[in-house]
Every structure is written in structure tokens, then in C-alpha cells.
Design brief:
It is built from 25 helices and 27 strands. It is α/β, with parallel strands linked by helices. A 6-stranded mixed beta sheet has the order 5-4-17-16-15-6, with helices on one face. Strands 22-26-23-25-24-27 form a 6-stranded mixed beta barrel. The radius of gyration is 25 Å and the shape is globular.
């Protein structure tokens, strides 16, 4: 057949949610992948990871057929079985657990391996229809969400395409060169068209920091202190917009008085920045009304993450930047969508009295620590995630999976760390092999992704697997009798948007609200329409009382460095990986090399470490061994390990999240991946 480019959308857990065009060269084979030039956000640009997707979808390491474990858990001993046998075994295990212990003994577990609303959400429909234990999904964005909601009341912000109209773009807590390349497209437009400046605020010299006009390399977990000192200067030097504050903010006078002692000198001692750096940035920001604050997740993946997000998000309120095109801020666009997910997730069967477990604390749940009442977890189906690698306290996660009385089925594309610990492994489709519906996280489009090629080997889509299991375990819901495309069509119509056929033709819907709504010029999402400098943290989650500052301030990290653990560890994203996805592709592995700890040259010299030496990092949770790389682009006392590598990539087969704590981030939980104190020594 002749090759043809077909439209679809990227499903991966990235704010860009790129509109794609994929070359189909045969019914079951793709060629090139490119960004859709006609999409105003993607603008024809996609990351290298997805541009090489043929390498991933056609990898010889794809899971090809259902597998049954034949040896001890984790032994790697498998026998091929048919789909009927695999589904029957999973259903029998679920029914047995329900019969012996009750429905809550079954815990379906999922996350963001695909962001598609149908293929991702169907496991929720099965959960709710059967009354299985609920999942409290916290591992990624809960601290960031809570910090933004604390002041704004809704998760929306300035249209990211407005960056082209900005005179200053502040990239705070993100590395878009590696993790959201489309931001750089719009930054480039502002630089070329307006001479805009790019500032990056990050604990180490990332790829984005290297191409920025200014990089503020602060200590991890001190963003709140920097934000407060900047706002101190804004008020002190007359750069606060008093008229805007009078109209749109609550408690501005009290906040200004609070900031009187949060001087640049105070913040310099906390952040490691100089007074001159803090004041210089404050004056640059305060004198540039068209200043766009692009907030990433990095500053929120700490015990003080929600407090830091709230503090930093106060900046455009103080200057009144929200009133200007190209000004304001964006963290996430999730609040702009009104997509009815009742059918896809079975929300009409949701019973909130059923117990729920925090996904970030899967280790504590599987080992019984978090079970306050009811039965132990006896059976699981895992889709779209790899908790044995990505979750905190991974040594305990592994111990939980190795329980002899726990049945685990994993639906996956590759033999991940989690799949290796399962009893049944079943092969999953990629986004190119099924239909789905997507919404942008850091942009404004709703996109449809139609199937491009036939499924590889014996892989099956999530929706089909869930529907087949539902039939076997007696779960009833209309969604189980519909195709994925029929569910998409119904969701769109119920949401008052369009229908699947029309969206397939149009490819996407631009859901960005008007300027006034996007910039909160109609008021912030509270009854009085005013931004909250003093949030009601207790209303946002069970850990809000007494743990978070009443007003924006420096909140100490949860695990500060001390004499026993003198280094702060940040586990930042790798450019060639996306969480634990793409770690299986040869090109990504070759370009990343191996797990490495970036350490300041003077710290390396003090420890007698040379480039390439094996070094052991440890704390009370365990230790891991990686290779050292002296790097001047990191503060002294801070070390960086990039990427969620498979455990097998580490010298002792133990991955980096062995060192991260599962302690919930206030006010609503979450994982503090970048908030770890460790010791280092030569291995």
C-alpha cells in the first residue's frame, strides 16, 4: 500500500498533548511521526522521543502474548497462554478474593501511561461497578493542584500561546527543553518578535537553563523564600500594582506587612542566591508588565510543594501582570474542560464509602501499614503505570508485590519492573492501535486519536480487556457493552461539544476561554472573586491543618540535609525518558547512557570521587549505587540523578526511588520525589 499520514494525538503524560501526524506504511506498520503544523500550540514541533515512535511501537521487546508465571515471583519464568485463559485466571482471582474477603480486597491500580480518557478511565468503571477499593491518585500533580487552587480557586491560566506576546517569560520549576518542548516554540517567538527575556529558576543547570538569559540556581525546596523576597522588593520599591490588588486580592495589606521581614538578605541565606541576584530578578519582573510565569511541577515535588506553588503564584497578583496580554501565569489548563466522564469512568456507580488507598503509598498499602480496617489487598489489575519503579519507598513496594497471598495481573506494552513481579502479564496496545480522546494539560485543545494501525502481535486495548473482565466477574454498566469510539461519541455529545465523526474530521477543539476568564479578570474562583494570600488549607485536604504557612513563606523541606545526610537529592526527569516510558528503546538508552549522579566538583573532590567512579547514595530507606559525574551546574550539597531508569540499570539492581519517602505532602497527599536527604560515599 502507499504510505499516508494520518492524524492522531500523543497520549503520554506530558502537558503538551501534541497533535500528531503519523505515517502508515502498512496496515500494521508506521514510519515517520511529525507534529501537526496546523495546530496552533503544537505548531509542527514534537519531542525527539515521540518522533522516534516507530522504534517503540515496533520494538522486538514488545510483549507479544499473554504470560503465566511458572516460577517464584520475580524469577522471570513464564509460560505463554491464550487470552481466554489469562482473562479467566484474572477473573477467578478477583472472584475468589471477593468471596473470601469482600470486594474491597480487590484493588485495581492505574495512572498516566496513557492520558486518553477512555483507555485510561475504563478501569475506574470496573472498580465502581464492583465496589472494589478506590484509588486516591496523588503521585504526580496533587501538591501542585492544591498550591494553585489555594490562591486561585480553579485550575486555569493565561493562554500559553500568549507567551509570544510576552516581554519576559519566567520558567519556574520546569525544564521544557526536555519535558515540554512546545513551550520553547512560543518562547522563541517572543524572543524573535519582541526581544523577550527567558529566566529559569531551577536547582541545577538544565538544558532550559543553558539557553536562558538568566538562571537562578537556588537550593531545592527554597522557592517560597525566593518568591517572598521578590515580593518584598516589589512592595518596597513601588512595583506592586495597588489598584489591581485593591480590586482582585484579599488581605493585601496584611500580606505586605508579613513580607516586611522577608528581605533579600533573609532569602539569600535560605536559597543560596546572592542578594544582588534576588533584587535584580525582582526589578526585572516588577518592571515588566507583560511577564508570563510558566510554572512546572518540579518545585512542588517536595513536602513543602503546595506551599511553594502558592507562594510563587502570588507574584503576578502583586504586579497586576494578569491584566495584560502576555502576562499572568499558567500551571495547568485542566479546569477549562467540561468533559462528562460519567460513562467512561462509571461515575454513576461511585460509592465514596468504599475505602481508598493512596497510590503514592502502595508499599504501605500492600504490606498492611495503611490498612486501618477491612481485608488485606488480595488481588490487583495494573494498567498504565509501573509502581515498582516510579513510586516512593520502592523497596517496600517490592516486598508488597512479593507476598505469596497477593495475585497481580499487569496489562503492559513491555516487561516492566512491575510486570516482572506479576502472576499474569497481558500485552497492551499503544495509542496507535486504538481509539481515544485527549485533553491538553499545558495547552487548550481537546483532540481525538483514531486508530492508525492494527494491534501488534496479540496486544489488546485497555477498554476491551476491562469489558471482558467485567463480563467474567459480573460487573454491569452500559460502557462495558460499547466500543471505545461509541463511548467517545457519547461523551462528546453529553458534554455539549460535538460528535466523534465531526471531531475526527476537525481533529481538535480549541477550549481556551476568553481573555477575561483566562486571566481571572472576571474574578478569581471564590465567592468574593478575590485571590487568597491566606488560603484555607484545611478545606483542601486532610493534612492541611497546622502544617502549611498561613501566609506565603519559606516552609522547610520535609527532609532537610543534616550532619548524617549532608546532601539534598533531586530525581529530575531525563530528556530521553518520560517517567519510566521510553526507557525500553535502544536510542533513548544509548543517549542517556546510564544512571549518573551529578555532583559539584568540589564535593566530588572532598569525597575523592572522579568522573565515572561508582558512588553509593543512601538514607534510612536504603541505598543505591550509580556512577559519579562532577558537574559545576549544581549547588554544593545538592546531587541530581536524572530519569526513572529500570531497576536493572543500576549496579545493584535497586532503583532510585528506594530513597524517596512515601510521607504524604500536605494538604492532600502526593509524593515528595525531589525532597530527599542522603549521604554519599565511594562504592
Amino acid at each position: 500500500m502507499n504510505s499516508v499520514f494520518l492524524p492522531t494525538a500523543c497520549p503520554h503524560d506530558c502537558p503538551s498533548t501534541c497533535a500528531l501526524e503519523v505515517e502508515r506504511v502498512a496496515p500494521d506498520r508506521i514510519g515517520k511521526v511529525r507534529g501537526a503544523a496546523a495546530n496552533s500550540y503544537t505548531a509542527g514541533v514534537i519531542c525527539a522521543k515521540v518522533s522516534r515512535y516507530a522504534e517503540r511501537v515496533h520494538s522486538p521487546d514488545r510483549l507479544k502474548t499473554p504470560l503465566r508465571r511458572t516460577g517464584p515471583k520475580g524469577s522471570g519464568q513464564w509460560a505463554e497462554i491464550g487470552w481466554d485463559e489469562a482473562l479467566d485466571r484474572i477473573a477467578d482471582a478477583f472472584l475468589d478474593a471477593e468471596r473470601r474477603l469482600g470486594a474491597e480486597a480487590v484493588w485495581p491500580y492505574f495512572y498516566a501511561g496513557t492520558m486518553g480518557l477512555v483507555q485510561r478511565g475504563g478501569i475506574q468503571r470496573l472498580r465502581h461497578a464492583k465496589g472494589y477499593s478506590r484509588q486516591i491518585s496523588t503521585v504526580c500533580d496533587t501538591p501542585a493542584n492544591m498550591g494553585w487552587l489555594a490562591g486561585h480557586g480553579d485550575i486555569r491560566g493565561a493562554d500559553p500561546r500568549e507567551m509570544a506576546d510576552s516581554d519576559l517569560i519566567v520558567n519556574w520549576g520546569g525544564n521544557p527543553v526536555a519535558t515540554q518542548v512546545n513551550v520553547m516554540t512560543h518562547v522563541s517567538r517572543a524572543r524573535k518578535g519582541r526581544g523577550a527575556k527567558l529566566v529559569t529558576i531551577d536547582p541545577y543547570r538544565t538544558g532550559t537553563a543553558e539557553v536562558s538569559d538568566l538562571h537562578l540556581m537556588l537550593r531545592p525546596g527554597t522557592d517560597g523564600a525566593l518568591a517572598c523576597a521578590v515580593m518584598h522588593v516589589l512592595f518596597r520599591e513601588g512595583m506592586a500594582d495597588r489598584a489591581y490588588l485593591d480590586r482582585y486580592a484579599a488581605g493585601a495589606d496584611r500580606f505586605e506587612a508579613h513580607l516586611a521581614t522577608r528581605t533579600p538578605e533573609w532569602a539569600a541565606a535560605i536559597t543560596g542566591l546572592t542578594v544582588e541576584e534576588i533584587v535584580g530578578f525582582a526589578r526585572l519582573y516588577g518592571t515588566t508588565k507583560r511577564s508570563y510565569l510558566r510554572l512546572g511541577y518540579g518545585l512542588t515535588r517536595a513536602h513543602n510543594g503546595a506551599a511553594q506553588m502558592h507562594a510563587v503564584s502570588c507574584l503576578p497578583v502583586v504586579t497586576g501582570a494578569w491584566a495584560h496580554k502576555g502576562g499572568g501565569a499558567l500551571y495547568c489548563s485542566s479546569g477549562i474542560y467540561s468533559i462528562d466522564r460519567t460513562l467512561s469512568e462509571g461515575l454513576d456507580r461511585l460509592d465514596t464509602s468504599v475505602r481508598g488507598f493512596d497510590q503514592s503509598r502502595i508499599g504501605a498499602a500492600l504490606t498492611g501499614e495503611d490498612i486501618k480496617s477491612g481485608p488485606p489487598i488480595a488481588a490487583m489489575l495494573i494498567q498504565n503505570t509501573n509502581p515498582a519503579a516510579i513510586c516512593p519507598d520502592s523497596a517496600r513496594v517490592r516486598r508488597g508485590f512479593l507476598r505469596d497471598d497477593l495475585f497481580v495481573a499487569v496489562h503492559e506494552q513491555f516487561m516492566t519492573d512491575t510486570a516482572q513481579l506479576a502472576d499474569i502479564v497481558i500485552p497492551a496496545t499503544t495509542f496507535l492501535e486504538h481509539d481515544d480522546l485527549y485533553r491538553g494539560g499545558g495547552q487548550m485543545h481537546i483532540l481525538i486519536g483514531r486508530k492508525v494501525i492494527e494491534p501488534q502481535f496479540e496486544s489488546r486495548e485497555n477498554h476491551w480487556v476491562i469489558s471482558e473482565l467485567a463480563r467474567r466477574v459480573g460487573a454491569e454498566h452500559p460502557g462495558f457493552g460499547m466500543s471505545a469510539l461509541e463511548i467517545i461519541d457519547s461523551m462528546l455529545k453529553t458534554s455539549g461539544l460535538t460528535d466523534a465523526a465531526t471531531l475526527t474530521e476537525q481533529r481538535w477543539i480549541d477550549a481556551q476561554p476568553d481573555f477575561e476568564t483566562s486571566h481571572f479578570l472576571n474574578g478569581f474562583a471564590f465567592p468574593d472573586g478575590r485571590f487568597r494570600f491566606a488560603p484555607d488549607w484545611t478545606a483542601l485536604g486532610p493534612y492541611g491543618a497546622g502544617q502549611l504557612p498561613e501566609l506565603p513563606d519559606h516552609m522547610a523541606p520535609g527532609r532537610p540535609a543534616d550532619a548524617e545526610h549532608p546532601f539534598r537529592l533531586v530525581t529530575a526527569p531525563a530528556r530521553q525518558f518520560l517517567n519510566s516510558s521510553f526507557t525500553e528503546t535502544v536510542t533513548a538508552q544509548r543517549r542517556e547512557g546510564r544512571p549518573t549522579v551529578l555532583i559539584h566538583p568540589e564535593d566530588a573532590a572532598d569525597l575523592a570521587l572522579a568522573d565515572g567512579d561508582a558512588v553509593r547514595l543512601g538514607n534510612g530507606l536504603g541505598s543505591v549505587v550509580v556512577h559519579a559525574k562532577p558537574f559545576a551546574g549544581v549547588p554544593r550539597g545538592v546531587v541530581i540523578v536524572e530519569g526513572i531508569w529500570p531497576n536493572s540499570a543500576f549496579l545493584e539492581g535497586i532503583g532510585i526511588n528506594t530513597l524517596t519517602s512515601p510521607e504524604p505532602v500536605p494538604p492532600a497527599g502526593g509524593a515528595a520525589f525531589h525532597d530527599t536527604a542522603v549521604w554519599l560515599r565511594a562504592a
